[in-house]
Amino acid sequence: MNLFELIASDYKKHKKYGGNFFTIVFFTQGFWAVYHYRISHFIHQKVKWKIFRFPLLFIMLIGQKGIEILTGISIPGSARIGHSFYVGHFGGIILNANTVIGNNCNISQGVTIGVSGLDQNRGTPILGNEVYIGANSVIAGKIILGNNVLVGACSLVKDSFSDNSVIMGVPGIQVSQNGSKGYI
């Protein structure tokens, strides 16, 4: 997908949860953060000439800091996120620069996706498609969450889980195989 198709898919996903063009574009902080991420990621991936790349990345870094101050959402341009990404609420969302998130995923407020582990186990998570992450959850380490995974609110996920898992608790454990259907 090109940049415009990705932004359109994110907009459609935000619209699915309510609102019109005016409220989404001017009052939805999650959409602001995702929109800025898409432009930053495009520059990070596509602009290779150093004479253009460094000034543009610097401008995007300044813009990212502004978005972080206004929204409390940090999505670095080097993260890899699939289409139809939805950030539902204001604040406290931190993604590591090496995070990989699949298509059609939802993230709630207070979520951290970060680096953890020691030696060969140190790394960042890879999330599959249609993953729902509940409020105030932490996903950390060199782990893989499969497709259609649901992470319950206030969970700490430090282990890999297969497709259709429902994960809850500290540390997170699989409580069912019902997946994220109905949450995405």
Automatic annotation (TrEMBL):
Its EC number is 2.3.1.30. Keywords: Acyltransferase, Membrane, Transferase, Transmembrane, Transmembrane helix. InterPro entries: Hexapep, LbH_SAT, Ser_O-AcTrfase, Trimer_LpxA-like_sf. CDD domains: LbH_SAT (cd03354). The chain crosses the membrane at residues 20-39, 51-75. It catalyses: L-serine + acetyl-CoA = O-acetyl-L-serine + CoA. Coiled coil: none annotated. Gene3D superfamilies: Hexapeptide repeat proteins (2.160.10.10). It comes from the Bacteria. One of its GO terms (molecular function) is serine O-acetyltransferase activity. Belongs to the transferase hexapeptide repeat family. PANTHER family: SERINE ACETYLTRANSFERASE. This is Serine acetyltransferase.
